[in-house]
Amino acid sequence: MIRFENVGLRYGLGPEVLRDVNFHLIPGSFHFLTGPSGAGKTSLLRLLLMSLRPSRGLIFLFDQNASNLPAGERAELRRRIGIVFQDFRLLDHLTTWENVALPLRVLGKNPDEYRSDVTELLKWVGLGDRMYAYPAVLSGGEKQRAAIARAVIGKPELLLADEPTGNVDPQMAHRLLRLFVELNRLGTSVIIATHDYQLMDQTDAPRLVLNEGRMEIR
Q1: How much is the pTM?
Q2: 27-52+77-217 belongs to which homologous superfamily?
């Protein structure tokens, strides 16, 4: 599913923020990505999403060398990835329901095929009464849950989540973790970047630990 070989990343002429990163993850795995602030977690997720290119080394995704793919092929691979951003990135002109359904709409699916699935998922994440609200009137926690629902609705092969429970209470965080675990049980590989040790302690999933740009698996 994922393989990093001696990957390094620097921004401009600055020092490397990731150094000699080597790891591989098999399909269907579940990992937390953790480490202190500034350790490079978001940068690593951006490499996986192919919105950044490594300064050196090789990155393989889905058995393809993703290090220097042309734009069209990167876009094709991204369709197999679900992503939860820290800043949500909901579209302001779409309702919550429409935002969550967007990945399925982009794939050309008929709304009749997914209408009930979107509605059921929104109820699961506690947004059953906010389905037709626009992002401007949603709280931070509601936007977070909508972003998570949008990322998982298409059952992606790989899910990347950047601090997905940072704006919700512990009870909802546990509920969302259950959603990620169930998605993983159905075959999706999951990587959750988080500082929340209470969340991580709820499962025995291994941890990818970044510290000063280097990684170890615990």
Answers
A1: 0.91
A2: P-loop containing nucleotide triphosphate hydrolases (3.40.50.300)
